[in-house]
Specification:
Structural class: mainly beta
Radius of gyration: 19 Å
Strand order of the largest sheet: 2-3-4-1-5-8-7-6
Largest sheet: 8 strands, mixed
Oligomer: single chain
Length: 323
């Protein structure tokens, strides 16, 4: 039994239109059906983000993960503090629906892996001391030569948890995932046990469950930077980046969505081909967020699903919503 990767997340939101604008500005493709919007990466046949409109506030509805041996997972869930539940109204009952010990809803589906991403025609190369790999060409083209950022796939989901170690114990015990790394009991990262990004589902400590961010891979670090600045200019909300994480090693740029949570572009994530050969590290808090980058926004790890009163969307590119 094992989780193999992230498929999607579903959010209840007050306003589907503002969500569609934000996520299509980010590079996703929208399919709208009444008060529901499905947002997918170009070239994929499934949604990565689903928005359910008509709610009073934004709230995480569920996350969806690709998994195998669902019967074994169903048998293990109760022993680890979760429960198997019926599909919510309006959703198909195929696959397996469960709740974790804190009531977070998870949908598990057996489905084939997505096709492997094609390698870039011109790979990202860095010239360094004693290692000159890029010759007779410029690394950077004129700005007009670059298309908009193109998210390739949903890499991981970070959610809030009132008890991060308990959430990790459930994901590793009931769902067969592995602990990649953590920082005390404040933040933790879980991966698939074979051929996985450094993290597939991560947890940050909060008074309650909620959605923090979805992270989408792009072609290279330059596209992280270009895409982040372009989305920030359109959204006129908060951002954090360009920077590089210590845990996972990826380059990042986060942009705040209309409801106070975040969208991340990433590139160059650590890869765990075999979790049995990986040693998780317990990082100090100073390394929990970034190796380098701008100052962290004051509300970056604020769960507005627990306290929605503090969030007011920023009205200027350089302003920041503060709790």
């Amino acid at each position: 039994m094992a989780v193999l990767g992230a498929l999607s997340l579903t959010l209840e939101v007050p306003d589907v239109e503002s969500g569609v604008k934000f996520y299509t500005d980010a590079g996703l493709v929208a399919e709208i059906d009444g008060n529901m919007a499905r947002l997918r990466c170009e070239g994929q046949d499934r949604a990565s983000i689903v928005l359910l409109g008509g709610y009073s506030r934004k709230r995480l509805h569920h996350i969806s993960l690709r998994a195998e041996e669902l019967d074994a997972i169903a048998a293990a869930v109760p022993a680890h503090g979760g429960k198997v539940v019926a599909a919510p109204e309006g959703f198909e009952d195929n696959g397996l629906w469960i709740e974790d010990p804190h009531g977070m809803l998870i949908r598990l589906s057996e489905r084939p892996a997505d096709p492997e991403l094609a390698a870039a025609e011109t790979p990202f190369e860095v010239n360094g001391p004693g290692r000159v790999v890029r010759k007779r060409r410029s690394a950077v083209l004129p700005q007009s030569a670059y298309p908009p950022a193109n998210p390739l796939r949903l890499g991981h989901i970070l959610v809030f948890s009132p008890d991060v170690p308990a959430s990790v114990a459930f994901m590793t015990g009931a769902l067969g995932m592995g602990l990649a790394d953590h920082a005390q009991d404040i933040i933790a990262f879980t991966c698939a046990r074979k051929n996985s990004d450094h993290h597939v589902v991560a947890f940050a400590k909060s008074p309650g469950v909620g959605f923090h961010h979805a992270s989408f891979q792009v072609g290279d670090p330059d596209e992280v930077g270009r895409g982040g600045r372009a989305l920030l200019a359109k959204s006129r909300r908060g951002d954090w980046g360009f920077g590089r994480h210590t845990i996972g090693s990826n380059f990042f740029h986060y942009i705040q969505d209309p409801w106070g949570s975040w969208f991340e572009y990433f590139s160059d994530m650590d890869y765990i081909d075999d979790h049995s050969l990986w040693t998780p590290t317990n990082y100090e808090m100073e390394d929990s967020l970034a190796s380098w980058g701008p100052d962290v926004p004051k509300d970056f790890v604020h769960n507005y699903e627990v306290d929605v009163q503090g969030f007011q969307p920023a009205v200027g590119q350089d302003t920041m919503a503060l709790a």
